[in-house]
Amino acid sequence: MSRTLKYQRIVNDIINQIENGEIKHKLPSMEVLRSKYNVSWTVMAQVWECLKSRKLIRVVPGVGTFLASAIYIPKQRKHR
To answer: Could you tell me where the DSSP H helices lie in 1-80?
Structure first.
């Protein structure tokens, strides 16, 4: 299967999980999803970029990836 087809399949699957309420606030990490779908980091990066460009997710560095529609999104932690 080509990278483009994998990428589209994963994006569609994640959107379906969001619509069905399986993903409610926070997405699993890229590592967890990469292992689940058995794809490269490059493919997962494309998935993340697509979800961000559609304004479906918000990435909080050091905290996690959240649905943009989530009521509570924790602020980025300050490292001292």
So the answer is: 3-19, 30-37, 41-53
10 Å Cβ neighbour count for 42?
10
- Other beta carbons within 10 Å of 69: 13
- Residues 39, 10 contacting (CB under 8 angstroms): yes
What single-letter DSSP state applies at residue 53?
H
pLDDT tens column, 3-12 = 668 899 999 9
Please write the tens of the pLDDT for every residue from 34-56. 999 999 999 999 999 999 999 99
> What's the half-sphere exposure (Cβ side, CA atoms, 13 Å) at 15?
14
